[in-house]
Design brief:
The chain is 80% helix and 0% strand. With 127 residues, the chain is an all-alpha fold. Its main location: nucleus.
Length: 127
């Protein structure tokens, strides 16, 4: 299975055509069943084509879903920058949190440290 986005889109396009083929085969089987004298061989052929195509579609879709699951969980994957992007975003959040905590600590430090008398207060007591 190709790893590039173009190849993945092309593969999904092929899967879409296979789904259309499966639906067409199911429709032909139903048309044959609707006849007054259906031919068992035709029904079997269309049903077999439908089932084989459906199994192939399921296999290919499972591969795509597994790929997307791997990429979306942030695990490293060749050709994907999702994990690095996620790490960067988390680092920015950690920096913001650290800044917030430091600001809180600085505020507490100023509240708890003994305050120096203001110059205006000293001048008033000298008079």
């Amino acid at each position: 299975m190709g790893s590039g986005p173009v190849e993945r889109i092309q593969q999904l396009d092929i899967i879409e055509r296979e789904i259309a083929t499966a639906i067409h085969s199911a429709g032909l089987a139903l048309q044959e069943l609707a006849k007054e004298k259906p031919q068992a061989k035709q029904i079997e052929t269309h049903t077999t084509t439908f089932m084989k195509t459906l199994m192939e579609v399921e296999k290919k879709m499972t591969n795509h879903i597994n790929y997307l699951t791997q990429v979306s969980t942030g695990q490293p994957h060749e050709g994907s920058s999702y994990a690095a992007s996620k790490d960067l975003t988390l680092a920015y959040h950690r920096i913001d949190h650290i800044k917030s905590r430091l600001a809180t600590l600085e505020r507490f430090h100023h509240e708890l440290s003994p305050q120096k008398p203001h110059a205006k207060t000293l001048q008033m007591s000298d008079s």
